[in-house]
Write a structure and sequence with these properties.
With about 250 residues, the chain is an alpha+beta fold. It has three helices and seven strands. The radius of gyration is 65 Å and the shape is rod-shaped.
Amino acid sequence: MKKFGRRALALVLAVLLLGLCACSAKTEMVQEETAASEIAAEPAQDAVKPEEAPVAEKPSKEEEPDAAIEEKKPETVEPEENEETAQEPEVRAPIDELPEQEAPAVTDAPLTCTISISCATILDHLDKLDPEKVELVPEDGWILAPVTVEFMAGQNVFDVLLATVKANAIHMEYQNTPMYETAYIEGIGNLYEFDCGALSGWMYRVNGWFPNYGCSRYAVQAGDVIEWMYTCDLGSDVGGGGVSQGYEE
């Protein structure tokens, strides 16, 4: 009996020993398989990574070929010329051949002319003069000796006369009708028309010429010589026979 128990115990120990050996062998196999799988996985991971392309060395400026330099320069496209688009170059005249330009006229600058007022003809016809007016006639016949006055461009003979008598405190009476551009001088220095006869009155002359129209229509020019004179014979005694007395009738 004791002998049988020993055999059973030995059998159990043998079975346990065999089981341990089997487990150990199985564990070693599993470890070998795991290691093998890890080894196999490493190349796969390396295969996933893309291979880096080798970096080409940049050539220096000295080694850069001329062709590459020419490629960098932008190409200049020259327009094609044809008979329609081609134009002759502009020809400019020399400066000394250019036409001269006149300076603009100055309209606001004062101009000058000469004006005078004379009643000298009355001295030769005192017998016809109203006795009450004798003392009004100057001994030399000048109510205003020739004097240079200023005027503005565009003014007429009447404008110049009116400004002159005001500046010199000389009496003057007139009739002015702007609508018809007429002005009639009735009296200067208190000497009126008809004071020295039926053909007497005031007349004006510019540069030696007696205009046949009113003094308000004669535009004065720089340097004009304006003469106002009293006539006793409708202008014949002062060189203007047949001319109206400074106004349009």
